[in-house]
Amino acid sequence: MPLLLDCMRHYGLPQNETSPPQYEDALPLQGGMAPFCLNRHNGHVNCLFLDWSVRKVGLKELWTLKWNQDFNTAGPWTKRGGVKPEDWPHWMRKFKDY
C-alpha cells in the first residue's frame, strides 16, 4: 500500500476510475490520481510503501497499486481492465503499460 509519493499537491484521493491528466505538468484542481501522475523521473515517481520499502512506480502503474482495501487494481485504467495504449493522453503513451 502506498504511503508517500512524489506529488504536486499536499493531498490526493486515488480512485481507480479517475482519468489521467490530459496534459503533462497540468496542475490538478482537486484530488484524484492526477496529483501523483507527474513525470518526475522519466515516466516514474518515487514511492514509499507501508512496509517501508521504496521503489520507482510507473505513471500508468499508479492505477494498479492497492491504495486501500476497496481499491480495484483491475480498474478501467489497467490492462486487466481493458485500457488500450491509445486511450492514454498523448504525453503518457510512451510510458510502460501495466
Word description of this protein:
The protein is mainly β and 98 residues long. A 3-stranded antiparallel beta sheet has the order 1-2-3, with no helix packed on it. It has one domain. The protein contains no helices and 3 strands.
Considering the chains and any ligands shown, give keywords for the structure:
98 residues; 15% strand; mainly beta; 3 strands; three-stranded antiparallel sheet
Order of helices and strands: EEE
User: From the structure provided, what is the oligomeric state, counting identical versus distinct chains?
Assistant: single chain
Largest sheet: 3 strands, antiparallel
Strand order of the largest sheet: 1-2-3
Q: Radius of gyration over alpha carbons?
A: 12 Å
Give start-end ranges of low-pLDDT stretches.
none
What is the end-to-end distance?
A: 17 Å
Average pLDDT figure: 92
By secondary-structure content and strand pairing, the structural class works out as: mainly beta
- The percentage helix is under 10%
